[in-house]
Design goal:
This protein is rod-shaped. The protein is built from 1 helix and no strands. Helix content is about 90%, strand content about 0%. By secondary structure, it is mostly helical. The longest helix is centred in the middle third of the chain and has 94 residues.
Length: about 100
């Protein structure tokens, strides 16, 4: 009878051990999943500031290029205006029989 009880106790202990082992594996999987999740979150948080900085840098560069292009367009328009005014003054002087002084080399 004592051999039979000890086998019964061994079976219960073994079942209990298997249950504990299963729970430990489940906790380990959860812990690994949790750690991976935290790692992904911190990775995302680290990436976002760099992406924001790159975007800001790109915007600053584009704004500088747009300002430069605008300056060139305004200079070209001003040059055309001066040319037009010069031609107009030249025509008015020609009608009066006069001309701009031009030094010849």
């Amino acid at each position: 009878m004592s051999v039979h009880m000890s086998t019964e106790k061994m079976t219960k202990v073994e079942e209990s051990f298997q249950r504990a082992l299963g729970l430990k594996k489940m906790v380990d999987r959860w812990r690994n999943s949790h750690t991976h999740c935290l790692w992904q979150m911190t990775l995302s948080q680290r990436r976002n500031p760099y992406a924001t900085l790159r975007l800001q840098d790109t915007m600053v560069q584009e704004l500088a290029l747009a300002n430069k292009q605008l300056l060139m367009v305004r200079q070209a328009a001003l040059h055309q205006l001066f040319e037009k005014e010069h031609q107009q003054y030249q025509q008015e002087l020609n009608q009066m029989g006069k001309a701009f002084y031009v030094e010849r080399l």
